[in-house]
Design goal:
It contains 6 helices and 11 strands. The chain is an alpha+beta fold. Strands 1, 2, 3, 4 and 6 form a 5-stranded antiparallel beta sheet that branches. The chain has a 4-stranded mixed beta sheet with strand order 5-10-9-7. A two-stranded antiparallel ribbon has the order 8-11. The longest helix is centred in the last third of the chain and has 22 residues.
């Protein structure tokens, strides 16, 4: 809790609590380099006040600063143990990993990726027909180490194995279509496509795409 408070104060100011209507100090999910909290803010965008449910991703303190030493230790360990297979260009692998981790550690990059991807999804009639969404970002509360987005209900998409075959087929076709669009049309791909980054809501049949920290163009 102390580290969480430190991060929120350093990123959003000592008055960070006044920027939220509510904030759950207990995380409800984990991200690769941070943890995620439920919260709400007062939304006055349409001229009237309303409560907007959001999620707040807070980066673990010191992650960005430890990348270099961690990768250096990993390189030494792999070379000493001989775990790396022959023909693997280890130095190149470490270089690419270093670059991607540094990008992922800056949530302002993730915000830009998320906004770009949301625009593409909104413009695609097939994805809209299949109820695919990308949450909006709360830009005024997003910093290098804190990312605030709209809350979307749902669980990880692997749970659809329990649904009827027609719905499983629809979701499978949708994910395949999305992948092909990313690769061959948009030329912009979310390169961490684990099932935890696809949320599916059984009641609305909505699929929410989250976590845009690592992208390839």
């Amino acid at each position: 809790k102390y580290q969480l408070l430190q991060q929120l104060e350093s990123q959003l100011g000592t008055d960070w609590r006044t920027k939220f209507a509510s904030f759950d100090m207990v995380p409800f999910a984990a991200a690769s380099i941070g943890q995620v909290h439920r919260a709400s803010i007062i939304d006055t965008a349409n001229g009237s006040s309303s409560i907007r449910q959001v999620v707040v991703k807070v980066q673990y303190p010191g992650v960005a600063n430890s990348i270099e030493s961690d990768l250096r230790n990993l390189t030494m360990l792999v070379k000493l143990t001989g775990f790396a297979p022959k023909g693997l260009f280890l130095d190149n692998v470490i270089r690419v990993g270093r670059e991607e981790l540094k990008v992922e550690c800056n949530y302002l990059n993730e915000m830009a990726n998320q906004k770009a991807f949301q625009k593409l999804v909104l413009a695609d009639p097939i994805l809209q027909e299949n109820n695919v969404v990308v949450p909006s970002v709360v830009e005024e509360l997003t910093t290098e180490q804190v990312l605030v987005s709209d809350y979307s209900p749902g669980g990880t998409i692997d749970k659809v194995t329990l649904l009827d075959q027609d719905e499983k087929n629809r979701i499978g076709r949708m994910i395949l279509y999305l992948t092909m669009k990313e690769l061959f049309v948009w030329r912009l791909m979310q390169t961490d496509p684990n099932w935890g980054n696809f949320l599916y809501d059984v009641g609305t049949k909505q699929t929410t795409l989250i976590d845009f920290g690592i992208f390839s163009c």
